[in-house]
Amino acid sequence: MNASSYDTHDLQARDSAHYLHPFTDTQALAGRGARIVVRADDIYVWDSEGQRLLDAMSGLWCVAVGYGRRRLADAAHRQMLQLPFYNSFFKTSVVPAIDLATRLAQLAPPGFDKVFFTNSGSEGNDTVIRMVRRYWDLQGQPGRDVIIARINGYHGSTMGGASLSGMDYMHAQGGLPIPGIVHIGQPYWYGSDRGLSPQAFGLQAARWLEHKILELGPERVAAFVAEPVQGAGGVIIPPETYWPEVQRIVDKYGILLVSDEVICGFGRLGRWFGCQHYGTRPDLITFAKAVTSGYLPLGGVLVGERVARTLVERGGEFEHGFTYSGHPTSCAVALENLAIMEEEDLPRHVREDAGPYLKQGFESLVDHPLVGHAQALGLVAGLALVADKSSGRFFDPGLAVGMLCRDFCFDSGLVMRAVGDRMIIAPPLIITRPQIDELIALIRRCLDSTLAEVKARGWLAG
Ligand SMILES: Cc1ncc(COP(=O)(O)O)c(C=O)c1O
Known about the structure:
alpha/beta; Aspartate Aminotransferase, domain 1; Aspartate Aminotransferase, domain 2; seven-stranded mixed sheet; five-stranded antiparallel sheet; globular; binds pyridoxal-5'-phosphate
């Protein structure tokens, strides 16, 4: 179907009449009408009006191998004809889940030999909460049930995932967090008072974990859950000193470390897993998104030896699971997706080619009058829009300058996300150098448009 065969007004009307979107003000959306995305190829998507957009968010951090991969469609088709679905509950198993679990155990850091499958990252993190608490029960320490996460970390939208997430506005809806989950500050140096060097601040932020452990009593603390790089919180790349100090602290108190790699897993930071970039040794790894490049829903938890031994050898039945845990078609697509990633050596492409090239281009945006700070790692990047470049003063959040910039991006053919006044990207891992040039030029153009608008509205300092 080409663009002209879509009746955008009709689609928008039915969309607002019947479809409640995730994380959306339905009434506000109805006022302007949703953009209807109708097809995609490589790193581009097209809407029902025929506009092409460079998708610098990989869908929602997931389309690692890009759009239009016939091999993934064929893998799903083959598997659906062979065995579209069967469960793994009743002493049964399915070949694609066995093969995918085997493959993940090979790709994961040493010691991760077991996998629990879910349908999403949120379910993965709910699984983490239950596994962590079960582990300590089996260790004879049921009082160790408090899980520490971080303000502005994002771990999903189920009751457990949203509780781990450190967003007040999410907690305010639905009586969250659930008991036994507490939060510490995030390692966002540019968002701090910048009184310390980034290195010193990284150590300080890690030590907030130690302070919280001591405040609660180490005998009550079960685990620390964090993303290697905070994604949905605005691509917060921690100072290099942060993770080694966190590792020292969790080791010292014997608490479990959970690396939520729903974004950072599968090559995003230039290694198969984000923890390998930082050299941390987690006990559990949550994954989703890029494991199938988003072509089908699949998530899960990689379970390290320490937890696996206890759960398996002493745990008996683990009273947890989902109808679609180990869904054969999703697993078949994941296997094909991982095969593509390996054949195209995508983690290396990110680490040695696209990542450094993006870093150079993206961080050069700091010369723009609106940009206070710009940072990239692998293929994630974020910049902070500021009202006063010399002091680094932020805009009044009520002005929603990030949203203004995001709208200019969409209008200019670029999907870039705004988190407050941080503008963030996570393009498909297959992005090439010429496409990165195109991306940076588009971002610059959108920043210029935003600057002109902000000046016209009299919002700029000086
Ligand atoms: C780090 C992280 N964890 C968990 C989730 C939740 O995953 P899902 O939306 O698949 O439930 C997300 C989603 O963006 C995420 O970024």
